[in-house]
Amino acid sequence: MISPGKKQHFTEQEFSQLMLAEFNRSLMLIADRELLVNNITSKIKQISPVERIVVFLLDVETEKYTRAGKRQHEDEWFRDIRFTPHDKLVNWLSVNERCFQVSRSDEVMTYLSDRERELTHAASIELIFPLKVMNRLNGFVMLGARSDEKPFSGQEIDLLSLLFDQAAFALENTTLYEEQSARIKKMYRADRLAILGQLAAGAAHEIRNPLTAIRSSMQYLAKGIHDPDKLEMISELMEEVDRINKIVQGLLSFAKPPGLEMARVDVAELLRQTLALLNNTLARGGVEASLDVRVKNTVVTADASQLKQVFLNVLLNAVEAMENSEEKRLALGIEDGRSLDYRSRYLLVIVADTGKGVEQGDLENIFNPFYTTKKDGTGLGLPISYGIVSRHGGEMEVNSASGKGATVVIKLPRTM
Ligand SMILES: Nc1ncnc2c1ncn2[C@@H]1O[C@H](COP(=O)(O)OP(=O)(O)OP(=O)(O)O)[C@@H](O)[C@H]1O
Ligand SMILES: [Mg+2]
To answer: Which of 37-51, 95-109, 237-251, 333-347 is most confident?
Structure first.
């Protein structure tokens, strides 16, 4: 382990080489993005004592650059700050592929947008480095002034640039690794759902026939009964039978889904219709709903009525999750998204609520048939929705932190 304390035993150049070699070795072993960013941060501190280190990384699916790494002291300047490929800073870094020093690059600063200029000045950012691999800007790093108020030396900046070139490659590796883990997880889920589906279809079939017999016999028997207490009992029994019937119906549509009737569907319009259907439910629950359409073209090829069923399930789940919340906000959004390899494009439908959220350990289960935390839930809403979205060639995922609401993302493939 080399450290600045031992720096005096080496020439500057030897120190740089050793530092980079060690950094490179340590990066090879890290497959986790956050860990990697923390490792990079601590290496920067070994090279330069800086006031502030802010790392932005590209989320390929949403095409946004968001902050990464541990945030011990939440930095107020950067809270909720995101960048897109259309932002001038991102554009400059992509084209020029090199770092720039804020206090010495007047022409770059003039090129930046007002927001970017204000942000760099307010947060006293002095250096901005691109993290670029091949032709893609995977992120960028902003460094504040040195804590000892000395200017950065040319050698220091060169060393940092080399460090970030290596870091960019290591980050690309973690992205590939995460992509692969996500793929394996999805395959596992699809397998599990297929097996459960077969089982469910068999069981549903067996249950449906006796159930029909029970219901019609009860109706027949009720005709000869006049005692109000007994009639009440029969009506309760009928309700239970209907409940079982509803579960069986759900199971069948999960296991043997109807074919897709594809047509051009305006997703924004369909979401508005679904919201209108839920108007009363929302008003009764005191839920404030909003729809933010952030793309021009919201048309996809899909089965409108099945897609509507997905939206209904997801929106109802959100409303139900907010039953006991102080704040009841349902934020729907439509955005553009891309697959990780850039090959396909998606329309993202995002449904965020301020409900009770899902515990980390339960996130794995919520797509399992019959998994429910509700008294009257069947636990089929999400698995059925997942099936519908999958059959459209899309994907569906739920992100949540317990107590902080849940966000459902539905990705629908777009034709290029
Ligand atoms: N937006 C959400 N916030 C918090 N928990 C959720 C949310 N959506 C789903 N869940 C959890 O996932 C479980 C499964 O949801 P799913 O829609 O499959 O079934 P359900 O809502 O319980 O029953 P049904 O859809 O038949 O009414 C829910 O019981 C709930 O615990
Ligand atoms: Mg549900």
So the answer is: 95-109
d(CA 39, CA 164) in angstroms, rounded, equals: 12
Which pTM value belongs to this model?
0.62
pLDDT exceeds 90 at position 56: yes
Domain 4-175 falls under CATH 1.10.10.10: no
23 neighbors 6 (Cβ within 8 angstroms): no
Structure tokens at 394: 């899309």
Q: What is the pLDDT of residues 66-83, one digit of tens each?
A: 988 766 555 777 877 899
* C-alpha distances out from residue 104 to 101, 143, 152, 155, 163, Å: 5, 14, 11, 16, 21
The tokens for 24 are: 């490179």
CATH 3.30.565.10 range(s) for the chain read 259-416
Residue whose Cα lies nearest atom 26 of ligand 1: it is: 378
pLDDT at position 262, please?
94
Residue 376, token pair as written in the block: 């009257």
Q: Provide mean pLDDT across the span 361-374.
A: 89
Mean pLDDT of the chain: 87
The closest of 387, 380, 170, 157 to 260, measured between CA atoms, is 387
CA 186 to ligand 1 centroid distance, Å = 20
Ligand 2 centre distance from Cα of residue 358 (Å): 13
Please tell me the CATH superfamily of domain 259-416, with its number.
Histidine kinase-like ATPase, C-terminal domain (3.30.565.10)
The amino acid present at 268, given as its one-letter code, is A
Distances (CA, A) of 15 to 4, 37, 47, 153, 305: 9, 22, 10, 15, 65
Give CA separation, 101 vs 107, 109, 143, in Å.
11, 10, 10
Domain with CATH 3.30.450.40 in the chain: 4-175
**148: CB partners within 8 A, 6+ apart:** 49
Residue 406: exposed, middle, or buried by beta-carbon count in 10 A (0-12, 13-18, 19+)?
Answer: buried
Query: Between 12-28 and 154-222, two packed helices, what is the crossing angle to 10 degrees?
Result: 20
In 223-266, which ranges are continuous DSSP H helix? 228-255
Proximal ligand: closest to the CA of 372: 1
Contact 352, 407 (CB under 8 A): yes
Length of the chain equals 416
Atom of ligand 1 nearest to the CA of 383: 18
